[in-house]
């Protein structure tokens, strides 16, 4: 049983949207910093120190922007794909696993850094094109902004050079996940100044550990008009309480990937029932904006059923704002989803972000955010 999403640990309950925005939202954000992610550094003003391109691809152009984000930290290389023929394009933003050049035909740079699949490498240009489907999205009028997640925050337990380490000097204790989410927010800082991007339709998206990242970024930052968390599991959209045996639980994630989180998360591993918050409340921090918790049937490790429970338990936060917000009563048939404002969806097959995901998400987003004007 998950705690009442509308109640804070001191028992006070939000009854109106104003209660939620003024008291519950800030207190919940502080609790997630304290118990799960640590505190990020204050925002900086990103400097665009270099631009490359534009390179033509099907449906639009690709530009690379080097963003200087923090003193002494190398710049972050953002790949920005803009669709042709759309004056103000809605934009997906998120970090990628593979480095930019493996997602597109354009001759974008091979960047430094280390991710789950090791360092970026010259081989395999365009090898993972089907993960982000950039040309298909451009053809449908969407812009995409993405960067390699390991470029300035290597995905390693004790990295010598990592953005989050440099934060210690300003008293911020955020770990890798906090740094990744902060970087996504800094990309938004640039997008909102770009006249070709619709600043009112910026959608956070990410897969797995980067789906935890998209969720934490959008929970904190209301400039994201919508949020997609794909197969994010433990530390993302799956609750700490009631993890099934075949899914990653908080003990396991803090043992293997403790460096993603605040050391305080270990306490949830010791006694999940005593944890003062749970991850349906992280989803609820995105209310009243549209959210998609996206899953795959064979990806039991990411606990799709737990995420369904989380979505159901989070729904009252949306209903404070919008009586129409609904989630399904029973888990949808595989290959389908359900909900309004707060969506849960799944497909057949294993852990991955694939064209099937994008094909399901686009109609949901055009329904929720409005269709794209040429
Ligand atoms: C797994 C990890 C998950 C998930 C996944 C991924 O090994 O246990 O929490 O983040 O990696 O990012 O692909």
| Order of helix and strand elements from N to C terminus | HEEEEEEHHEHHEHEHHHEHEEH
Unreliable sequence segments: none
Average pLDDT figure: 96
Q: Within the largest sheet, what's the order of strands?
A: 1-2-3-7-4-8-9-10-12-11
Q: What's the gyration radius in Å?
A: 19 Å
Q: Could you give the count of β-strands?
A: 12
**Apparent shape:** globular
Number of helices: 11
Terminal Cα separation, in Å? 47 Å
Q: Into which percent range does the helicity of residues fall?
A: 25-40%
Helix/strand/pairing class, anyone? Answer: alpha/beta
Largest sheet composition: 10 strands, mixed
Identify the notable features of this structure and list them briefly.
single chain; 374 residues; alpha/beta; ten-stranded mixed sheet; 12 strands; 30% helix; 20% strand; globular; binds beta-D-galactopyranuronic acid
Write the layout of secondary structure elements.
Elements: H1 17-37, E1 47-57, E2 60-68, E3 76-83, E4 89-96, E5 114-115, E6 118-119, H2 129-132, H3 134-139, E7 143-148, H4 163-167, H5 176-191, E8 197-207, H6 209-220, E9 226-230, H7 250-256, H8 266-270, H9 280-284, E10 291-296, H10 304-319, E11 337-338, E12 342-347, H11 355-369
Parallel strand pairs: 4-7, 4-8, 8-9, 9-10, 10-12
Antiparallel strand pairs: 1-2, 2-3, 3-7, 5-6, 11-12
Helix pairs in contact: 5-6
Bound molecules: beta-D-galactopyranuronic acid (GTR).
């Amino acid at each position: 049983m998950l705690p009442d999403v509308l109640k804070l640990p001191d028992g006070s309950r939000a009854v109106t949207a104003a209660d939620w925005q003024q008291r519950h939202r800030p207190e919940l954000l502080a609790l997630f910093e304290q118990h799960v992610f640590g505190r990020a550094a204050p925002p900086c003003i990103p400097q665009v120190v270099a631009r490359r391109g534009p390179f033509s691809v099907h449906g639009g152009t690709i530009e690379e922007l080097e963003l200087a984000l923090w003193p002494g930290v190398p710049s972050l290389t953002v790949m920005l794909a803009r669709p042709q023929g759309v004056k103000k394009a809605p934009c997906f933003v998120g970090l990628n696993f593979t480095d930019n050049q493996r997602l597109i035909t354009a001759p974008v740079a091979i960047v430094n850094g280390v991710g789950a699949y090791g360092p970026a490498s010259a081989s395999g240009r365009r090898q993972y094109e089907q993960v982000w489907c950039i040309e298909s999205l451009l053809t449908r009028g969407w812009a995409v902004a993405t960067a390699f997640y390991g470029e300035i925050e290597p995905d390693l337990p004790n990295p010598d050079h990592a953005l989050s380490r440099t934060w210690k000097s300003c008293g911020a204790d955020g770990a890798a996940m906090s740094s990744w989410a902060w970087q996504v927010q800094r990309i938004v800082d640039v997008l909102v100044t770009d006249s070709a991007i619709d600043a009112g339709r910026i959608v956070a998206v990410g897969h797995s550990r980067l789906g935890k990242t998209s969720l934490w970024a959008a929970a904190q930052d209301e400039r994201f008009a919508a949020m997609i968390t794909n197969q994010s599991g433990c530390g993302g959209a799956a609750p700490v309480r009631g993890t099934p045996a075949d899914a990653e639980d908080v003990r396991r994630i803090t043992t293997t990937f403790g460096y993603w989180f605040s050391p305080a998360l270990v306490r949830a591993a010791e006694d999940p029932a005593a944890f003062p918050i749970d991850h349906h409340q992280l989803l609820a921090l995105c209310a009243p904006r549209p959210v998609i918790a996206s899953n795959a049937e064979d990806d039991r490790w990411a606990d799709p059923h737990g995420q369904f429970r989380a979505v159901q338990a989070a729904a009252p936060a949306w209903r404070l704002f919008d009586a129409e917000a609904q989630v399904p009563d029973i888990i949808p048939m595989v290959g389908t989803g359900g909900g309004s404002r707060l969506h849960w969806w799944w497909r057949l097959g294993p852990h991955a972000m694939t064209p099937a995901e994008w094909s399901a998400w686009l109609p949901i987003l055009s329904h929720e955010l409005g269709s794209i004007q040429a």
